[in-house]
Amino acid sequence: MRNSEIITAPYGNQSCLRVKHPTGLNIDIMEMPGYHSAYALFGTKYGSVNTRFKLKGEQDFAQVPEGIAHFLEHKLFENEDCDAFARYAETGAIANAYTSFDRTAYLFMCSENFKPSLEILLDFVQHPYFTEETVRKEQGIIAQEIRMNQDEPGWKLFFNSLRGMYFHHPVRIDIAGTEQSIAQINADLLYRCYRTFYNLHNMTLAVAGDVKAEEVLEICDKLLIPCEDQGLEEVFPEEPEQIRSAEMESIAPVGVPLFSLDFKLRPRKQGSELLRAELLVNLAMRTLFNSSSAFYQEMLEKNLINFEFNADSPFSGGGHFSVGLSGESRNPHEVRERIFEVLEHAKANGFDRQAFERLKKSSYGNMISSMNYVDSNASMLLDSYMTGVKPFESIATLADLTYEEAWDFLRKEVSTDNAVLSIVHA
Amino acid sequence: MKEITEQLCDGVQLTMITEPKFKTSHIMMIMSMPAQPENYAKWDLAHSILLNSCAKYPSIAKMSERMQELYGASFDSSVAVLGDVFQMHFTVDVIADAYALHQENLRKESAEMLLDCILHPLLNDAGNAFTEQAFQTERQELLDAIDSEINNKRAYASKKLKQTAFAGEVIAYPCCGTREDALALTPETVYQAYVEILAKSEIMIYYVGAEDAPELKDLFRNALAPRKIADLGYFAPSPLKSEVKTVRESMDVNQSQLLMAFKLNTEQKITPEQLRTTSLIFGGVPFSLLFSNIREKMSLCYYCSSKDIFLKSTMIVSSGVSSENLEKTQNAVLEQLDLLKNGDFEDDLLENTKRYILNALRLSGDTPASCMTQILEQRIREDHAGLEERIVLYEQVTREDVIRTANALQLDSVYILEQEDET
Predict the structure, then answer these.
(1) Taking Cα atoms as reference points, which of B198, B202, B200, B206 lies closest to residue B6?
(2) pTM value?
(3) How far is A363 from chain B (nearest CA, A)?
(4) What does the pLDDT look like over B253-267, one tens digit per residue?
(5) Which of A12, A32, A361 sits opposite B71 (nearest CB)?
(6) pLDDT tens for residues B384-421?
(7) Domain made up of A3-234: CATH architecture
(8) Does the CB of B370 have a partner CB in chain A at under 8 Å?
(9) Which fold would CATH assign to domain A247-425?
(10) ipTM over 0.85 threshold
(11) CB B130 within 8 A of CB B195
């Protein structure tokens, strides 16, 4: 008898199976009849922000160099005999991995040989192999990745904004670390972080597409290595409510200056409350500033923004939460003043209720559209585990949101005192 | 999956793919004309104006409202030059009618909106030009986009390499035109250029959705007039230069960009499948020669990859490296190509690459966009090979084909974007 639950979307005619495997691993499987491809993600709640931690029974918190989660992702593809890409080459699967602020995920997509590809995934992620020599070799590759990111003005804009919002939270640190911090990484540190975070109680497997749940579970039964829950504890530094700096500026070769205006919000524990807050603030901000708004039309006519302007999706994780707007402008300060005026007016007087309902309908359509895709379904499953909500909870929560709640959120939570203007110009 | 192609009238063709698993309706219209660089800027500006307004929805705000009413339908347009052909694409993507909450006919309404935009644009009072306001907004947008090309260093370097490798060919000219072109435009000239492309271009319409859409046939047939279309030359091999041309540029960057264009010796008959397979073995898969050696063994870069442009008989290698390693990387790329030319590679590399390609091809029926791409590629390659036939063509690529293709590839151009010397 498995500890499992079938979860059905309230809209979109889709469902999935969530299983708590005896090894501690969370498994989500979405069978998609008619599809020829399958997509699998094996992920851990370990990203760039997880730099201070301890296990049950340990006295002190460990502090590790910046960029180590991302470094570990690179190195895990190698084992003693050959690398994972060489093994996938024999199944034809397209494989990759990524590290973000709060997670690392290993993935593959295939149209045949799903079972052997899944076996490779579960096997190599559970069998690390690091040596000082292979670690040194990787430092050159990652140094080039860091430099590549430094040449991305959008990346610079984003991290400058985070550094303007946060005093201490590690979200302000580049995911890949710095050339100096990755030089401190060695095989022992990688093993320590691996044993801490790559524990099945801290991980999930998300599979969608042309798969049979029973086949996935059989492979899991065969290959998952049981492990003890180690009682992982993490701490984030105490973070003041206010921002560190209202303006951040950087110089880079760009055409039109890039800007973002991000509002630091009160962080919430991950789960349903945070999901609701994200959907509310997203809808409210899009109502005020999206391309159908009076603000957008006016700014465009005055040549203060161009079509790059966007109301961005909220950005959140353990101990941080923000929402923002970004685009290109030759006068970002004037755009900021106008955004503040529109925001204050909306907080005092409310905003266009019809536009709010239209955008809610539009969000519903976008969520249904994303169900078309094997990869976006698998990613949604992974994301739901990582953020502590149930699969399909977003579309159910969306249906329940009201204009009054969104206005209330805007009034109480979004403050112009906590806004950071980040600019990158030539 | 059901696929029906029908000629609606001279020069206008509709392909409808019904696939019940999809939850959306995608409609794409492609207008194709022989490429004329002198008109690129006009055509680029025209498609942007059409995307953001029309007589019925006369501002971007009204257009956006309409898209939101259609459950967040997306409406997009773009331009491209393929071989010697210029294409203007319009795409609308909406959820399938079955998921509408109030029984709206979203597919039909979206198709009507697409036609409103391309057939009934917002014009001045005389009806002979786009409105001054729409023109000014979109031209500024175009100028900003041209100025901001520098923001994405990889894309910028790729464009510069193409200008070098394909100098004098229609593909070398920026498909949105230049700053000078944009500044010389008027609402009248842009509208006239659009009227011409609308009347004379070949029009291909694609629908991919969960349900049959018989209404689309009548809708498009009644809306679009027959036309006499010019011959479209998609396959336009680029001649190999007698000497390798190297262009260097410096900028305030943290990482240098190295791009190399290799062209096929035209004496050799190389098929698209042979070139694609060779390019992937060389640097297109994570177990390729470039990835395994230049990245993994030599640790010179984060990426070093190759891709082919079959219509131009060209393979492009790109990499991001430190300035001090530019020469070493360039030499290493040439050494790896020599290995391929000499047949110094494992049989497994070919077999695994073919498996990778076949896997990717079979994935293509799982998204509406890739379903359309498959059919569009048949038109462009003019071989009318369907998916299963294409798979067979890849299965037939041999080790000898790869060696022959590698030997036919010769270095034509190099573009280097390097870090500025701080002294």
Answers:
(1) B206
(2) 0.95
(3) 7
(4) 999 999 999 999 877
(5) A361
(6) 788 899 999 999 999 999 999 999 999 999 999 998 87
(7) 2-Layer Sandwich (3.30)
(8) no
(9) Cytochrome Bc1 Complex; Chain A, domain 1 (3.30.830)
(10) yes
(11) no
